[in-house]
Design goal:
CATH topology: TIM Barrel
CATH superfamily: Aldolase class I
Strand order of the largest sheet: 1-8-7-6-5-4-3-2
Order of helices and strands: EHEHEHEHEEHEHEHH
CATH class: Alpha Beta
Number of helices: 8
Helix content: 25-40%
Distance between the termini: 16 Å
Strand content: 15-25%
Number of strands: 8
Length: 219
């Protein structure tokens, strides 16, 4: 397996303290991360509602971290521009939504930011294979999207390995990100399987020492 640069850790603010969001983001920044993962849920695509572009815009003023925005929404083509204007550096939408995916990827990238696609646990790699040459990132969900704190699905490992093989064999410039149940043990498993980036929420923000929790994920 071709070794990539040091793994990217993207703490998910879904598990942060929203009454002290600025301070939680500063904390993870000081712990050494370069990305922050922002889960956007609309109550339709997933059974939960989280933040909108107003929160992203407010947070953008407080940090220089790379904004990894994950749109778990039914109509990403209608709303992605608002998140781009609010400060997103990367916008990931779901393969499972009814949208012209090639066009949406092209639109996002032509706006000057990066584009990614996320796949739910039941979605196979074959469904996105033709898009891989055009993507900056594939986000593999290792839990059912919608709520934090779920357990990692071990049977998603072959999916990560399959993506790594396809990307390496074709020399695609596309990162593999993994989201769901990531702790220090799971982090090692995912990186060994080929992951480039790891999203972790409750493991970091519910820890007694969040800084040490962040550091334990750099494998």
């Amino acid at each position: 397996m071709k070794k990539m640069k040091k793994v990217i850790i993207a703490p998910s603010i879904l598990s942060a303290n929203f009454a002290a969001l600025k301070y939680d983001v500063k904390m993870i920044e000081e712990a050494g991360v370069e990305w922050v993962h922002i889960d956007v849920m609309d109550g339709h695509f997933v059974p939960n509602i989280t933040v909108g572009p107003v929160v992203v815009k407010s947070l953008r003023k407080e940090t220089k971290l790379f904004f990894d925005v994950h749109l778990m929404i039914a109509n990403p083509e209608k709303y992605w521009r608002e998140f781009k204007e609010a400060g997103a550096d990367l916008i990931t939408f779901h393969n499972e939504v009814s949208v012209e995916k090639n066009k949406l990827v092209e639109d996002i990238k032509s706006s000057g930011i990066k584009a990614g696609i996320s796949i739910k646990p039941e979605t196979s790699v074959s469904e996105i294979e033709t898009l891989l040459p055009y993507l900056d990132l594939v986000l593999v969900m290792t839990v059912e999207p919608g709520f934090g704190g779920q357990s990692f699905m071990e049977n998603m490992i072959p999916k990560i390995k399959s993506l790594r093989k396809i990307i390496d064999e074709n020399n695609y410039d596309c990162l593999i990100e993994v989201d769901g149940g990531i702790d220090s043990r799971v982090a090692s498993i995912c990186v060994d399987a080929g992951a480039d980036a790891l999203v972790s929420g409750s493991y970091i923000f519910a820890a007694k020492n969040p800084t040490e929790a962040v550091k334990s994920l750099f494998v």
